[in-house]
Amino acid sequence: MSAPAAATSDLSAIEVRVLGCLVEKEATTPGAYPLTRNALRNACNQSTSRVPVMDVGEQQVESALLSLRDRRLARPVRNPGDRVTKFRHAMPEVWDLDDGESAVLAVLLLRGAQTVGELRTRTQRLHDFPDVDAVATVLSALANREPAMVAELGRAPGQKEARWLHQVGEHDASIAVAAAPTASTGDSHGPAGDGADVAQAWVAGASAVVEALADPAVAAAWDRPSVLADQTVSSLAGHLARGAVWVVGDYLDGDPAVGTADFASAGAYFAELTDALGDDDHAAVRNRGAAVGAVGHDHLVRSARARLADLAERIPAEDPDRLVATFGGLSIRLEDYLVTRIVEQVVHLDDLQRSVDGLSVSVPAACTDLAVATGLDVLRHRHGPAAPVRALFRREFREWVPVL
Asked: Is it the case that residue 52 has pLDDT exceeding 80?
């Protein structure tokens, strides 16, 4: 018999919901289990015992089932006399979970972050835990797996206990940010601020990018034109995934830069480098985005999510003063380079939202603040210290607003 598969960390939000519903309904409505597609959709869209409440469509359920089947986490069942195919989960077998572990994980999949006490109460219909210590023991076991299946978060406002969150797929980006270590205060470096603040802002922005790219509305508009000239939504998505998420890892893995930084700040990077790029350079950037997007929506999202899972732990641990060799071998401090990627996140998330009907994008405030500060810094570099004031408050100078 083959060994149990390691738990994946890149299930989509709908895949998470579908898997959690299958586990829950097996215990709470065994007479109706396995579930038909329609019953599963109704379970996904329940207004009770679900955080967040979702409106999942039939096609989304079908897509999630196909993906879960590929991972061996869900299986079709067609018994004699059945008029339609039904589905069951195989989570305990695939991930080597006992009943208690399955119950805890199912509630986390369906309800988001929970305290130990909440988990004991809300798992009662799935598993009988004698006390909260038994739940804590299960959480510790799941957290110590490789890779971890749950993670401990900080306390929510008004709560005395820490919360726990699953790590097998998508969850609310604001919760993930809250889980990050509190950034220390220190001297600022230009508009960027403290290095830990910038690193955490980049993680939050990259999480927002992945959440936006995973939205079904983006998949539906994949081959349509975007608001950017000569670029489809897929090309824009590819550019966003590459430029705002995984290119940071590519540069960190490259040859280390030595000496002093060629760019003194993120604003200097944009002011000097953008002017130096020609039409061929811009075309190459567009082509790289199109090539990344050509893999298709699902593959792109999975790749971006997997890269982010690695970088979200790696980036905050890096020295913010480390030099990174970027375009043409020119170097910049890592902290300043992260700010340039945050600008990419903010600007192109706005492009994506304007390109895709029905897409709602939530950009972390810290990212927007850094992007605005960098834009003002670009103005200072290009037009002098008075330029930001004139561009913001004098109509005749509005053409100075930088195009990054």
From this structure: yes
